[in-house]
Amino acid sequence: MDKPKVVLGVSGGIAAYKACELLRRLTESGHDVRVVPTASALHFVGAATWSALSGHPVATEVWDDVHEVLHVRIGQHADLVVVAPATADMLAKAAHGLADDLLTNTLLTARCPVVFAPAMHTEMWEHPATQENVATLRRRGAVVIEPAVGRLTGVDTGKGRLPDPVEIFEVCRRVLARGVREPDLAGRHVVISAGGTREPLDPVRFLGNRSSGKQGYALARTAAARGARVTLVAANTSGLADPAGVDVVPVGTAVQLREAVLKAAADADAVVMAAAVADFRPAAYAPGKIKKKDDQDPDPIALVRNPDILAEISADRARPGQVIVGFAAETDDVLANGRKKLARKGCDLLVVNEVGERKTFGSEENEAVVLAADGSEIPVPHGPKEALADTVWDLVAARLS
Ligand code: CTP
């Protein structure tokens, strides 16, 4: 089988050097990558580097190798075009259809999915001109990843950093796998909770659970690749990298998770509760470490109920037509318990999976049945957590349209 053909467009920002890492990941995972830098990008990383890493000649202008009609051919043959970094100038040119070099010509001739990973100073990103250009590109079906927040070129920090190349690579992989031309979640805001809450007993101890957060992160990545604006409320997931273009809100306890989810859900089209939320928390928090007392049995730990967030947001929807999805971790009578839980919680979809010592928690794979409020059952065979995530978004997208 032919390798998928990827065009890596690089525009003139300091983050151009990070595109070398993206290029490596793409080539090493079996993609045939043609790099098309702009003339300004070559001020940051030279043609020799792009050529050596991609194994292809590198041109910036339509006047290079004219006999090969590169300005049309490269775009026509691509399976994916990714522009990283995409400067404010590049987004403006792409939005307005300008074609004054090889990359902008390629963007006009490409009929495949296009991903932009913008990087610029916060002021430039927030300028209404840039925001309108981004909205135009998204409306036309391009995936524009939200920039990350962090250190910028100088000493300043803010929104505008190029997302981690590993995460841009993940978006490309997802977009290529689905072959999405029209990202079906474009213009939608989705909220996902992930991880497991920790309910503190004292400054050093907590009641927690084994949820790794990987399923929630897979949901966030796949939603972003399908064009959604994503808020990820992440409970104790410090080991996982922030997915590119996703707004991550870190939380610790069930009460904090509830607050963050309710806030983000106010304007959300869909909410997916993948987090394992503790049903109970210690009734009292000891501000100092609880000490054992010699020759005495330990004091019992009194617990109080935590709010049931899924039931609450399902009963009192922030917007009409908002789609709400729950997850159910069950060890016995998986489907029967799942049906009862779906009715009790009042959500639209419930992803039911069997958990146990060696099942699901922390693994890269999952197997589940999605139960719908209309009575249907959608089995999802054993496979990557991203495949389950895409099935969830297929069902959500169908309910939103
Ligand atoms: N959930 C929630 N708030 C809680 C507990 C759970 O929002 N206090 C959500 C979870 O995020 C998940 C779903 O409810 O989407 C089901 O979680 P699960 O732990 O399986 O269900 P429980 O409500 O704990 O029911 P049971 O005790 O019967 O297992």
UniProtKB/TrEMBL annotation:
Cofactor(s) required for function per UniProt: Mg(2+); FMN
**What range(s) does the DNA/pantothenate metabolism flavoprotein C-terminal domain occupy?**
185-398
Q: Give me the residues that bind CTP, please.
A: 279, 289, 307-310, 327, 341, 345
Where the record annotates domain Flavoprotein, the positions are 5-171
GO cellular component labels: phosphopantothenoylcysteine decarboxylase complex
Q: Which SUPFAM superfamilies match?
A: CoaB-like, Homo-oligomeric flavin-containing Cys decarboxylases, HFCD
Gene Ontology biological process = coenzyme A biosynthetic process; pantothenate catabolic process
Q: Which reaction does it catalyse?
A: N-[(R)-4-phosphopantothenoyl]-L-cysteine + H(+) = (R)-4'-phosphopantetheine + CO2; (R)-4'-phosphopantothenate + L-cysteine + CTP = N-[(R)-4-phosphopantothenoyl]-L-cysteine + CMP + diphosphate + H(+)
**Which InterPro entries does UniProt cross-reference here?**
CoaB-like_sf, CoaBC, DNA/pantothenate-metab_flavo_C, Flavin_trans-like, Flavoprotein
EC assignment? 4.1.1.36, 6.3.2.5
Task: Kindly tell me the pathway this chain contributes to.
Answer: Cofactor biosynthesis; coenzyme A biosynthesis; CoA from (R)-pantothenate: step 3/5; Cofactor biosynthesis; coenzyme A biosynthesis; CoA from (R)-pantothenate: step 2/5
Record region (Phosphopantothenate--cysteine ligase): 190-401
Is Nucleotide-binding one of the keywords UniProt gives this record? Answer: no
Question: Looking at the record's lineage, which domain of life comes first?
Answer: Bacteria
Q: Which NCBIfam families match?
A: coaBC_dfp
What family does this chain come from, according to its entry? Answer: In the C-terminal section; belongs to the PPC synthetase family. In the N-terminal section; belongs to the HFCD (homo-oligomeric flavin containing Cys decarboxylase) superfamily.
What's this protein's name?
Coenzyme A biosynthesis bifunctional protein CoaBC
